[in-house]
Amino acid sequence: MAIAAAAKKPIVIHTREAWDDTLALIEQYWKPRGLPGIMHCFSGSPSEAQRALDLGFYLSFGGIVTFPKAVDVQAAAKQAPRDRILVETDAPYLAPVPKRGKRNEPALMVHTARKLAELRGETYEDVCRATTENFQSLIGTHNR
Fold first, then answer.
1. Is residue 120 in a domain?
2. Per the structure, how many domains does the chain have?
3. Is the Cβ–Cβ distance between 112 and 61 less than 8 Å?
4. Is 108 left (phi over 0), alpha (psi -120 to 50) or beta?
5. Residue 38: which residues within 8 A CB-CB, separation 6 or more?
6. 25: in domain
7. pTM for this one?
8. CATH number, residue 85
């Protein structure tokens, strides 16, 4: 966190089954810096999503959001503000439906983005545009 803060860059956090501990550490050590971050391969509930959003994080959705039993992740994807969502592969793991169980790769992100659009009641093109703009904003390419 100190290295990222010195460079004024966002951090990327991947947490599983440790939401309270992870978010407490972020609140204590990262939030005071006023910098954004990414919750990589988001796998939490709507309440965990809201806590991360309140700490200035973006939610990055991977193939998990396409899994039929991932109802909490899907609910979080529906509620997340449009300007704070991202899509990712988490390659080579967690390939989205309909490729679940196969090796994940960037070309399969189309399935994740389509599911995200469906859940949010938006077009695929709008989700692609929003997630691209969000990433560019996050890493500062709009400011160059």
1. yes
2. 1
3. yes
4. alpha
5. 10, 11, 12, 13, 57, 58, 60, 86, 138
6. no
7. 0.94
8. 3.20.20.140
Rg over CA atoms, the chain? 15
Amino acid at 27: E
In a domain, 71, yes or no: yes
Please, are residues 87 and 61 in contact by the beta-carbon 8 Å criterion?
Answer: yes
Convert the pLDDT of each residue in 6-47 to its tens digit. 999 999 999 999 999 999 999 999 999 999 999 999 999 999
Those residues whose C-beta lies under 8 Å from the C-beta of residue 104, and which sit 6 or more positions away, are: 62, 63, 89, 90, 91, 92, 93, 94, 95, 96
The reply to whether 144 falls in a domain is no
Give the range of the structural domain holding residue 6, as residue numbers without chain letter.
2-18+35-139
Mean pLDDT per block of 10 residues along the chain (144 residues) reads: 92 95 96 95 98 97 98 98 97 97 97 98 98 93 46
